[in-house]
Amino acid sequence: FDGGEMKRITKENGIHSISFSPNGKYYFDTYSNINTLPALSLMSKDGVKLNLLAEPRPELLAELELQTPELFTIPTKDGFSMPAQILKPKNFIPIKKYPVIFHIYGGPSAPTVFDRWQGSSLFFDNMLLNRGYIVVKFDHRSATAISKKLENRLTMMMSGPIEIVDIVDGIHWLKSQPYVDANRVGIWGWSGGGSFTLNSMTNTQEFKAGISVAPVTDWHYYDTKWAEFAMKRPEDNPDGYEKTSFVKTAKNLHGRLLLVHGTYDDNVHPQNSWHFIDELVKANISFDMMFYPMRKHGISDDPARIHLYNKMLEFWEEYL
């Protein structure tokens, strides 16, 4: 960091996660790309491979015949190129109309589209492909981590009306594609992605169905350290808190919703869902919900996670 020109030391295109030795002479390099399983190598500081410590074994996955994503970009109306990826069914027919499931996270500088191996998420996504769905991800500009300037657009108004403009542009682009059934587009996300699912379903009419897992529904209910980092104190930013509250917009829900939460969630407290549900009840809006007793934010134990994925699959097949 002497102010000189940066020099690339990795050779393969994809994602390299590195860890340097204490003396700075060597580093471990964990590498993968969207079609290649991870490999672990010991490297010199100049990028010379000294030893391949763990190599990928694609034969272990060959019998599963997993489809892997294609990377591309989606243009917004003002010319920004959003990073995107698409998973298509194995025997994809370009002239056929497919239902689409849009998977989002959307947090500030928290991209979901990478040129790296997708890991275990590919298994559930491929289940969806085998049922005839297309699965898409794209990152709105403030989620891309391209620059601090793009992230700072969200100061005082996080997970609200700013990001939804890019999301709608992306969905409109998808609906214009000849292989997309524009009347059968769904959305789902977890945590921040759950929030964006509610944002998209209460502030637009673009989605036929959606699944929101562990969503923040109003920043008043979230951890003050994180919420006030971007939103400031409620008394200093009442307009921002008002415009990013999906409790306020719940009565405008469009499309069928499955709302999921763990009752022991100590990250996004279940009161977020309680208040949103209360507004749906007041508005006499039908919806589905699934609460997992004694599960935290990740709903991560095998029985609960398998149950959740089965529940999600049943929901998509009934409502999308």
TrEMBL record:
Q: What Gene3D superfamilies does this protein map onto?
A: alpha/beta hydrolase, Dipeptidylpeptidase IV, N-terminal domain
SUPFAM superfamilies in the cross-refs: alpha/beta-Hydrolases, DPP6 N-terminal domain-like
Which Pfam families does the record cross-reference, listed alphabetically? Peptidase_S9
User: Which InterPro entries does the UniProt record give?
Assistant: AB_hydrolase_fold, Peptidase_S9_cat, Serine_Prot_S9B/DPPIV
Q: Name one GO molecular function term.
A: dipeptidyl-peptidase activity
Task: List, for all copies, the residue spans of the domain called Peptidase S9 prolyl oligopeptidase catalytic.
Answer: 128-320
Task: Give one GO biological process term.
Answer: proteolysis
The protein in question is named Peptidase S9 prolyl oligopeptidase catalytic domain-containing protein
